[in-house]
Design brief:
Organism: Mucilaginibacter panaciglaebae
Strand order of the largest sheet: 3-2-1-4-5-7-6
CATH superfamily: Vaccinia Virus protein VP39
Number of strands: 7
Keywords: Methyltransferase, Transferase
Shape: globular
Largest sheet: 7 strands, mixed
Oligomer: single chain
Number of domains: 1
Helix content: 25-40%
Protein name: Class I SAM-dependent methyltransferase
Order of helices and strands: HEHEHEEHEHHEHE
CATH architecture: 3-Layer(aba) Sandwich
Strand content: 15-25%
CATH class: Alpha Beta
Structural class: alpha/beta
CATH topology: Rossmann fold
GO molecular function: methyltransferase activity
């Protein structure tokens, strides 16, 4: 199954999220950013509104890329690789992967490619789904099921699955220093709270469907 077939079932809203919850992690002095998997450019537009920065995007879906070109400065309609000619010689203050790394066959290659695209103090900011999110664990333990869905943590187009611990390890093994790893969009399920209490508050990561990783190349 090719890329277009894999994503053909996606609802239009899948490409429209602005991701306001990522804004607190963005460096205040950002001047130029690269949004990998920029969809229709909603997040990039938000960056421009809040920071007045230049925004480039990479988006493999042609329709989304065309829409993104109306919202951000430069859009590359292609898969993200180390050899994109449009990125040759470019340097960015921040490179974003908003729920993208888990869709890649080899996310390590993507992180390695970013080393040549970051300014001296540049950072990678990645939102990554958390497979230890309480509903997923409940499905495994109570219902004995690993059920794929059209979106979310169990998106059927995810090729990789991560916990907070393995997210950090992935960045560190690729030569990055993780400077933040924080949960976003907390769920606060009733039974999760009880479980976490009984386990001496050691399961707080299960409350978050995603974590944001901020990392820099030392």
């Amino acid at each position: 199954m090719n890329y277009k077939e894999q994503y053909s079932h996606k609802d239009k809203m899948y490409y429209l999220h602005r991701r306001t919850e990522i804004i607190p992690f963005v460096p205040a002095a950002i001047k130029i950013a690269l949004d990998v998997g920029c969809a229709t450019g909603g997040f990039g537009a938000l960056l421009k509104e809040n920071f007045g920065c230049e925004v480039w995007g990479v988006e493999p879906d042609a329709g989304s890329a065309d829409e993104a070109s109306k919202n951000i400065d430069v859009v590359i309609n292609d898969l993200f690789t180390a050899n994109l000619p449009q990125l040759a010689g470019k340097k960015f203050d921040a490179i974003f992967f908003n729920d993208v790394l888990e869709h890649l066959q080899d996310p390590d290659k993507a992180l390695l490619a970013c080393k040549h695209l970051l300014n001296l103090n540049g950072v990678i900011i990645a939102s990554i789904p958390n497979i230890r999110w309480y509903p997923v664990i409940l499905s495994l333990l109570r219902y004995k099921d690993f059920k794929y869905e059209n979106a979310g943590v169990m998106d059927r187009t995810h090729l990789r699955f991560f916990t907070k611990k393995s997210m950090i390890r992935m960045f560190e093994e690729n030569g990055y220093k993780v400077i933040a790893a924080e949960g976003i969009n907390p769920s606060n399920f009733k039974y999760y709270k009880i479980l976490n209490f009984l386990l001496l508050n050691t399961q707080s990561d299960m409350n978050y469907p995603q974590f944001v990783i901020v990392a820099k190349h030392p």
